[in-house]
Design a protein that fits this description.
- This protein has one domain.
- 63% of the residues lie in helices and 2% in strands.
- The protein has 12 helices and 2 strands; from the N terminus they run βαβααααααααααα.
- A two-stranded antiparallel ribbon has the order 1-2.
- About 6% of the residues have low confidence.
Length: 241
């Protein structure tokens, strides 16, 4: 079943705190139960819809940081999230509301980090998809990279992990395999293999779907897995020489 059946309506009847709850609540007339005293933590909201809303909000903030939204970026958002034409108006309202509100991206990133604090691979996937959107117009600006790096820090990613995601966006013949796997060229093969197995487990599409990543965006995780596999294959060949 698609997450787009009733994205905003899917939150009605659930308690949802923090800036995301406030933003969605303002769009549905306050019909979302407030749980503000519990901080930013979500309470029983549908996980795949939470992921989709989070991605739309951060994408809107990314567009604002860049100064404009290109046609290519809008198409990328539509294609990446597999938004049907009849749902574009609803998604556009969320996007515009997030783009226009006075909050910066930081409170949203902080809340999303808390929601998925036990599922770091899901947070990696948010960063991976934000890069996809930023790349859509053929040029990832410095301001976009700065913001994505800032979001990654809120998510608890260190610089090596951030660079690994960024590097995995390249084609297999251009990527640095050690950066993708977060390893050093001085590491022995056993260490590299251990890191590879860890990343393979974390980023397997089936595991991500079970943790709340919607099927609509799982294709990007498949690309990440291909980059991880390619990086390991390259290192294995080099170590065997």
């Amino acid at each position: 079943m698609s997450i787009w059946g009733s994205l905003i309506g899917g939150f009605v009847g659930f308690s949802f705190a923090g800036p995301i709850g406030a933003l969605i609540g303002s769009m549905v007339g306050g019909r979302i139960s407030s749980a503000r005293r519990s901080g930013f933590q979500q309470s029983f909201a549908p996980p795949q819809q939470v992921f989709a809303i989070a991605l739309i909000i951060l994408t809107a903030k990314l567009a604002k940081a860049d100064g404009y939204v290109s046609k290519e970026e809008l198409i990328a958002i539509k294609d990446k999230l597999k938004i049907p034409e009849h749902e574009m108006d609803q998604v556009g309202k969320i996007f515009n509301k997030a783009k226009e509100d006075s909050l910066s991206y930081e409170p949203y990133a902080q809340q999303i980090a808390q929601i998925y604090r036990n599922n770091p691979a899901v947070l990696d996937e948010v960063i991976n998809t934000l890069f996809y959107i930023a790349e859509a117009d053929g040029n990832v600006s410095d301001s976009e990279i700065t913001m994505i790096r800032g979001i990654a820090k809120f998510f608890g990613l260190n610089e090596s992990q951030f660079e690994g995601i960024k590097e995995s966006r390249k084609s297999s013949d251009k990527l640095n395999p050690y950066i993708v796997l977060g390893c050093s060229s001085n590491d022995d093969f056993a260490t590299v293999r251990k890191k590879y197995l860890q990343l393979s487990k974390e980023h397997h599409p089936d595991i991500l779907m079970n943790k709340g990543v919607p099927k609509e965006v799982i294709e990007e995780s498949k690309k990440k897995m291909r980059a991880i596999n390619s990086a390991f294959d390259q290192i294995e060949k080099m170590k065997q020489k």
